[in-house]
Design goal:
By secondary structure, this protein is mainly β. It is built from one helix and seven strands. The longest helix has 4 residues.
Length: 95
């Protein structure tokens, strides 16, 4: 199974909001650990197609613990189809 993580970068250029996209792929939770950290706000599409938004509590090679509306939810790698994280652009990426 291949887990896709899309990193959307929001950029502000000359006072006008623009959207720039970048995508990095991780095939496993273990690979994903270098791309997202505890506290990251993510959107997950699970194996059934349901969308879940929350904040990463912990991520191990086998499970993702996510804080969703004040409750903690644990997802196994096999239950996750896609993960997206929204990031703000760094000052260096602005021209």
């Amino acid at each position: 199974m291949r887990i896709r993580i899309g990193l959307l970068v929001v950029a502000m250029l000359a006072g006008v909001a623009g959207l720039a996209g970048a995508q990095e792929l991780a095939g496993t939770f273990d690979q994903l650990r270098v791309l997202i950290a505890p506290g990251s706000k993510i959107t997950i599409i699970d194996a059934s197609g349901q969308t879940v938004k929350g904040k990463v509590v912990t991520l191990s090679a086998t499970a993702l613990r996510l804080s969703v509306a004040g409750a903690t939810r644990e997802l196994a790698e096999r239950d996750v189809d896609q993960i997206r994280e929204r990031r703000a652009a760094s000052p260096r990426s602005r021209s």
